[in-house]
């Protein structure tokens, strides 16, 4: 994904939905670029800040508590790239969000995001309930993301279907948890609930009824 963004040491990247900060810190270490991670969860921001300090990249990698569904508190033309890995599905108001990403991008800058909730087949209400059991999600139909991107005034560079790979990741996660159940020492109800969730993720992706798609776009 960083290759598609043409990341170099001089690149300034904004990560939307930076979580616990591990990805931003890794990218800052690997490429020597400047990273700004934003997330709604203050615990994740605190953890990311500590990771950056521990790994010696605090000067180039920072984090901030921000609700990404609202206008970002950054000047126009501030970033060379905007990066969002599997977090767009949690953010309401996708059209206005993409318009704001365009605003903070420099001319010629790129954005890349993945969406693992693209409805590409028939999904039952029970399956939707299980898939949504760990948070709030927004499910666009196939082709809708492309419409949002274009309507935001961005130019689509590439659309990549990563569904097969995503399904295998979910299956390996499910199977590894089962293998190390004793070591995990989770309450039985919690363990079984997450196992059911992970198998649902795998099965829906495996049958391509939900798809995980990566979108790359640029600001002209």
- Rg is 18 Å
Structural class: alpha/beta
The percentage of residues in β strands lies in 15-25%
Briefly note the CATH topology name: Rossmann fold
Count of helices?
8
CATH class: Alpha Beta
Number of domains: 1
Give the proportion of residues in helices: 40-55%
CATH H-level superfamily: Vaccinia Virus protein VP39
Biggest sheet, in brief? 7 strands, mixed
Q: Give the averaged pLDDT, no decimals.
A: 97
pLDDT < 50 stretches: none
Keywords:
single chain, 220 residues, alpha/beta, Rossmann fold, seven-stranded mixed sheet, 8 helices, 7 strands, 40% helix, 24% strand
Walk me through what this model shows:
The chain is an alpha/beta fold. It has one domain: 3-Layer(aba) Sandwich (Rossmann fold), CATH 3.40.50.150. The chain contains eight helices and seven strands; from the N terminus they run βαβαββαβααβαααβ. Strands 3-2-1-4-5-7-6 form a seven-stranded mixed β-sheet. Helix 1 links the parallel strand 1 and strand 2. Helix 6 packs antiparallel against helix 8. It is globular, with a radius of gyration of 18 Å. The model has no long low-confidence stretch (mean pLDDT 97).
């Amino acid at each position: 994904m960083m290759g598609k963004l043409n990341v170099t040491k001089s690149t300034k990247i904004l990560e939307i939905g930076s979580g616990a900060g591990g990805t931003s810190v890794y990218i800052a270490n690997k490429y020597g670029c400047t990273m700004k991670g934003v997330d709604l969860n203050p615990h994740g921001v605190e953890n990311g800040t500590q990771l950056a300090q521990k790994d010696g990249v605090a000067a180039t990698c920072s984090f901030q508590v921000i609700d990404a569904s609202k206008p970002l508190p950054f000047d126009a033309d501030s970033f060379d790239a905007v990066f969002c890995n599997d977090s767009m599905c949690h953010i309401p108001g996708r059209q206005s969000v993409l318009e704001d990403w365009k605003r903070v991008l420099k001319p010629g800058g790129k954005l890349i995001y993945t969406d693992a909730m693209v409805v590409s087949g028939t999904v039952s209400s029970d399956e939707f309930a299980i898939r949504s059991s760990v948070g709030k999600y927004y499910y666009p139909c196939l082709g809708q993301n492309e419409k949002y991107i274009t309507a935001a005034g961005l130019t689509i560079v590439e659309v990549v279907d990563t569904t097969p790979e995503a399904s295998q990741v979910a299956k390996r996660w499910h199977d590894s948890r089962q293998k190390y159940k004793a070591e995990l020492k989770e309450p039985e109800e919690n363990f079984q609930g997450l196992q059911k969730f992970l198998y649902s993720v795998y099965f829906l992706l495996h049958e391509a009824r939900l798809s995980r798609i990566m979108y790359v776009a640029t600001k002209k």
